[in-house]
């Protein structure tokens, strides 16, 4: 008997597969589904590789980074403080929202850090949140560009 996903003519012999005959009553081996994996060499969704910020031309880098983060739906973390659970709030939805907020803040902060030159990365990697990092860069470099 020849079935989909089974090229062996003796499909009732499952001893080589490590399963007992009772676990698969039909004796038919289901086909293996292989999904294609697309690996993008560039994490910037608009196709332009963002240049590392080296300390000059902040306004240009700032606008490009803001655009990149907006396309990733992470720009809202520029203005928001990270979520915190209020005392006495123990419901699952609150914890899920907190986890999602922490994850998005982590992504946002690291997108910004990865857009910095190594020397600037080392100076700014200790910032606690994406908002703190963004505001710190704006305070330092917006005034220098002016």
Spell out the key features of this protein:
146 residues; mainly alpha; 2 domains; 4 helices
3D architecture notes:
This protein is mostly helical. The chain has two domains: about 35 residues, no CATH class; about 90 residues, no CATH class. The protein has four helices and no strands. The longest helix is centred in the C-terminal third of the chain and has 23 residues. The radius of gyration is 26 Å and the shape is extended. It starts with about 55 loop residues before the first helix and ends with a helix. The N terminus is likely disordered.
Brief rundown of the structure:
The protein has 146 residues and is an all-alpha fold. The protein has helices at 58-71, 92-114, 118-124, 130-145.
